[in-house]
Design a protein that fits this description.
The complex is a heterodimer. Chain A is mainly α. Helices cover 71% and strands 0% of the residues of chain A. Chain B has one domain. The chains are: A mainly alpha, B mainly alpha.
């Protein structure tokens, strides 16, 4: 029994690490490829950002003489924080076990929710079908102790994750101010303004999902067990997905808010803050940024995937496959958006973010309605 | 709370109307209005199917002439969707082209805030719909009433917070859709002649306001309703 779990966990670790380190640069490559194709160019290979990162790692580094330790340590801190977020949050449908106490914890949580489920009366065929799915789910998990698709990490509390993103942002801003360049200064100012506007959207979307799921743990909210209380709430999943997608466009400084390919420092937000980085430092910053992209798009994709799963149940293998494919699809979609829209004027951006907040407010109402 | 198609359509009509409030770009507003009206038409079609108004149209000379025997509710939904969902946005778009306006600068509230206010009003209409003495006391009618009231509120906000006369027409149209949806969800289908009459009224209203817009533009050189009190020769 325990050996099975160990082997399973090893498989999960291998799959997870491959996706964790290879997919984020490829997602960026997909966005760029889509944009190139939409503009009638052939474009660089999809793997080009990966090669860029490897090249940057080999290069030397130039440091401004006015920088302090903050500037050097920022990229490492951000990288570490983002890796931790990536390990903790359920942005893929398969997650390795990190801590030893997690399996009993999940078994207990599942048993508890199954207990609740068994006391519900069988009203119609739908709920009978659900019970069958639940029984199958339980059978799988009791046979092996834990199945490949259980998200078996704990400790990803909603607010912990949101404020870990904020911690990474704090250090980026500090480093931009530390380098002492003018552009870094106003890049930082804009970044903080955007963060202030977009944070309610993300917190409300996650909190309403948590409210409907009766937990504040992201891994329990996005767990694939049939006993999850929000497994059937397709509208909530979709609207939360839209809210997160719009918010992540802002967080990732993509097109309607910030032009990632601009050469004009006056209009930059994210790029203005990392102007002073070079060499290995820049490689870490870039990888942190693409990893953030993968995590945020992954969470968005998970919302949509849960929504589709609520409408039509499909196999667990497909769920794991789709969770990776959706990352690619969402980045292609970002590429299409970037080709179709222009960068908004700075004063128009709050209107754009208002849409994300509006979606989150709708989520809140649906969640409250579901709780009653 | 798993929604069926009836509730999903009603609520998505309300949500799309709320999204209209968030942008002041007129073309985008017309697009969203079109989508929202097509959703209302789909709702009418769905309710017609549920209520069993599937008997064939007893004005056979309209469609019978070209050999089409469409059920009554399909014809109604088709008229509604085609004229109001596609025709009205195209007509308004042509007016916008001719009077050369693009966006609307809101007066009372920023558009983002008015959208959030509309969402809060959606919550208020949820509470109101629970208080309503409904004819048939099932969840469907309550959700329908909630969506309809939210539409009326959104239309009202659109009329109150916008500056251009063309946005006032849009607000009126959204309110009218709300009233239509209310009647539809509370009565499970109206007689065809009533629906056609309402549709005709709205179309004529839009035409007349369109003509009025030209005249306002001609004599005032803008279509800003807040400045219409200034008298001129």
């Amino acid at each position: 029994m325990t050996q099975d779990i160990l082997i399973l966990n090893a498989c999960k670790w291998i799959a997870f690490i491959i996706v964790l380190f290879v997919s984020p640069p490829i997602l960026l490559g997909l966005v760029r490829k889509t944009k190139a194709r939409m503009q009638g160019r052939v474009g660089a290979r999809v793997t080009q950002p990966l090669h860029d990162l490897l090249k940057l790692l080999k290069k030397g580094e130039t440091l401004s003489s006015v920088t302090s330790w903050i500037f050097r340590s920022t990229s490492v801190i951000n990288f570490a924080v983002m890796l931790l977020i990536a390990v903790l949050t359920p942005w893929l449908s398969f997650k390795p076990q990190v801590f030893e106490h997690e399996i009993p914890y999940y078994a207990a949580a599942r048993a508890k929710s199954a207990d609740v489920k068994q006391h519900l009366p069988v009203v119609d065929g739908l709920s009978a079908k659900k019970d069958a799915a639940l029984a199958k789910d339980l059978a799988v998990s009791t046979a092996t102790g834990v199945s490949f698709f259980d998200v078996s990490t704990t400790g990803s509390d909603i607010f912990l994750i949101v404020y870990m993103f904020a911690l990474a942002r704090l250090f980026t801003v500090l480093a931009a101010l530390d380098a002492g360049s003018v552009f870094g200064g106003f890049g930082a100012s804009r970044e903080v303004t955007l963060a202030l506007l977009v944070e309610p959207a993300i917190v409300l979307a996650f909190a309403s999902l948590g409210c409907a799921a009766h937990t504040s743990d992201l891994n329990l909210i996005f767990s694939w067990t049939a006993s999850n209380p929000i497994m059937d709430l397709a509208p909530l999943w979709f609207i939360a997905g839209f809210a997160l997608f719009l918010a992540s466009l802002v967080e990732l400084s993509r097109m309607p808010v910030d032009d990632p390919t601009t050469h004009l420092e006056l209009t930059m937000v994210h790029e203005a803050m990392i102007l002073e980085n070079s060499g290995r430092n820049l490689a870490l910053v870039e990888f942190t940024h693409v990893l953030k992209m993968a995590v945020l798009l992954g969470l968005t994709g998970q919302c949509f995937l849960h929504g589709f799963y609520a409408l039509a149940k499909f196999d667990h293998w497909l769920v794991a496959l789709f969770s990776v494919l959706l990352l690619g699809l969402l980045s292609i979609f970002i590429g299409v958006i970037e080709s179709a829209t222009v960068k908004l004027r700075w004063t128009k951006i709050p209107e754009f973010i208002a849409y994300s907040v509006a979606m989150s407010l709708l989520c809140v109402f649906i969640a409250i309605g579901a709780r009653r | 709370m798993s929604l069926d198609i009836y509730e999903m359509l009603a609520l998505s009509a309300a949500v799309v109307a709320i999204l209209m409030l968030g942008t002041s770009h007129l073309r985008l507003n017309f697009w969203l209005y079109g989508i929202h009206t097509v959703i209302v038409a789909l709702e009418a079609w769905w309710i017609g199917g549920l209520a069993g108004h599937t008997d064939e149209l007893f004005l056979p000379n309209i469609f019978g002439a070209i050999g089409l025997a469409l059920p009554q509710h399909t014809v109604e939904a088709l008229f509604f969707g085609l004229f109001k969902g596609i025709g009205v946005p195209i007509f308004l778009g042509s007016i916008v082209d001719k009077v050369k306006v693009e966006g609307d600068t809101g007066t009372l509230l920023p558009s983002a805030l008015s959208m959030h206010l509309a969402i809060i009003l959606l919550g208020v209409s949820y509470l109101l719909s629970a208080q309503l003495p409904v004819l048939s006391n099932d969840a469907d009618t309550k959700i329908g009433a909630m969506a309809a009231m939210s539409l009326v509120f959104s239309g009202m906000l659109l009329m109150l917070t916008r500056r251009l006369a063309i946005s006032q027409i849009l607000g009126f149209l959204v309110m009218e859709n709300g009233i239509y949806l209310f009647a539809l969800t509370q009565t499970h289908g109206m007689p065809m002649i009533v629906e056609m009459g309402v549709l005709l009224d709205v179309l004529v209203g839009v035409m007349i306001t369109g003509l009025l817009l030209f005249n306002i533009k001609k004599s005032f050189e803008h279509i800003d309703v807040t400045q219409l009190t200034d008298l001129r020769d």
